[in-house]
Design brief:
Elements lengths: L2 H6 L4 H15 L25 E4 L5 E7 L6 H15 L7 E6 L5 H14 L2 E5 L1 H8 L5 H8 L11 H11 L13 H12 L15 H13 L1
Parallel strand pairs: 2-3, 3-4
Antiparallel strand pairs: 1-2
Helix pairs in contact: 3-4
């Protein structure tokens, strides 16, 4: 067990719910737009009810997400049974998916029962257990969440995708979003591409604050990638 796994086990139920709400959309686009119905807004307090988080799928099914720190025997299976009952009430069993997000390692027997029950009901099943969650948090692009919830500082050599970098800048900046058109600088972009193709390994982009250095570099990287 590494440090991330160890500290993950110490999260409260509310903290783990919020972590799931932020981490899952980064893992897969299908989790984008999930509704966090199991939390008291603005706090780490939780509400009783099933599911903790959910979203409706384009095909009419639902994704139900149950989050728990309770490692009591049969707790994971019990949450699944409650979710199946809820889906049955709204008649949305077909094409639905169930996700359990937990900060411990469940017994193989219990997970086998969960998978078998979902298979019988025609529901997809996915498990995010302690080791799997920790693996995602240890990826450089998720070090911000690891620091936020576990207080583990990011590695000095942290890297992130361009899309994640843009998302972070747009959250933190009051400047125009990156969805605006990029006008001009075509010559400068081609000049730098020519330098790179000529084998120049270090190129410095400099200028006064606010002139557009970051946007220019992003557009340059987009041009190089294409």
């Amino acid at each position: 067990m590494n440090n991330t796994q160890f500290l993950l086990k110490g999260l409260s139920s509310g903290e783990l719910q919020q972590l799931a709400f932020e981490l899952l959309p980064r893992i897969s686009k299908k989790y984008k737009g999930i509704i966090h119905s199991g939390a008291v807004e603005g706090t780490f307090k939780t509400r009783k009810g099933t599911p903790d988080q959910w979203r409706e799928k384009p095909d009419g099914g639902f994704i139900y997400i149950q989050v728990t720190t309770d490692s009591t025997k049969r707790k994971v299976l019990s949450d699944l049974e409650k979710s199946i009952k809820s889906l049955g009430k709204i008649k949305k069993m077909a094409q639905s998916e169930y996700v359990t997000f937990i900060n411990f390692e469940p017994s193989p027997e219990e997970i086998h029962k969960c998978k078998r029950l979902c298979q019988q009901k025609g529901i997809g099943f996915d498990l995010f257990n302690n080791s799997r969650i920790a693996k995602y948090l240890d990826e450089p692009q998720n070090h911000d969440l690891r620091f936020k919830y576990l207080n583990i500082p990011p590695d000095i050599s942290i890297f992130m995708t361009i899309d994640r970098f843009k998302e972070r800048l747009e959250r933190q900046s009051r400047k125009l979003p990156f969805s605006t058109a990029f006008v001009g600088r075509e010559k400068e972009i081609q000049d730098i591409i020519s330098l790179i193709q000529a084998g120049i390994r270090v190129i410095v982009i400099y200028g006064n604050p606010g002139v557009g250095k970051t946007r220019f570099c992003l557009e340059l990287s987009k041009e190089i990638k294409s």
